[in-house]
Design brief:
The chain is α/β, with parallel strands linked by helices and about 130 residues long. The protein has 5 helices and 5 strands; from the N terminus they run αβαβαβαββα. α4 links the parallel β3 and β4.
Length: about 130
């Protein structure tokens, strides 16, 4: 029996992170690590899938890879900021192949991959806690 359902049930009020990456191993690792830290996680394999998922159920934050098929992370970020229901949700973009000076999308933070998990977790807390409303 998987621990995932019990963990999800034990964190019904956890913040929702949308993780977007075309690599299954990355999605699996982030899901496990974030859920262990009390977050709820949704995943998407490309930007178009992520955008459709977020429009149905907006997350608290998105962590997206840059290089993906169909819609890359920069395109997703631009579409994200153009959507009134999503534009204020923090957006973290990460890439192994692109440098931030090569990008102009309106992301909140950019990380070069591989990102140490503790660094990413601290950034997520920083971005989601600043947006917390009493």
């Amino acid at each position: 029996m998987s621990d995932q359902p019990a963990l999800m049930e034990s964190n019904p009020d956890g913040k929702v992170i949308l993780v977007v990456d075309d690599e299954f191993d990355v999605l699996s690792a982030y899901t496990m690590l974030f859920e262990f830290r009390g977050f709820r996680v949704r995943t998407a394999g490309n930007g178009a899938e992520a955008l459709a998922l977020a429009r149905r159920a907006p997350p608290d934050i998105v962590v997206s890879d840059y290089m993906m098929p169909i819609m890359n992370g920069a395109e997703l970020c631009v579409a994200w900021r153009d959507d009134p229901a999503l534009r204020d949700i923090p957006f973290i973009l990460a890439s192994a192949g692109i440098l931030p000076r090569d990008l102009r999308p309106p992301y909140d933070l950019f990380f070069r991959k591989p990102v140490p998990f503790d660094t990413l977790l601290a950034a997520i807390h920083q971005l989601t806690d600043r947006d917390a409303r009493p």
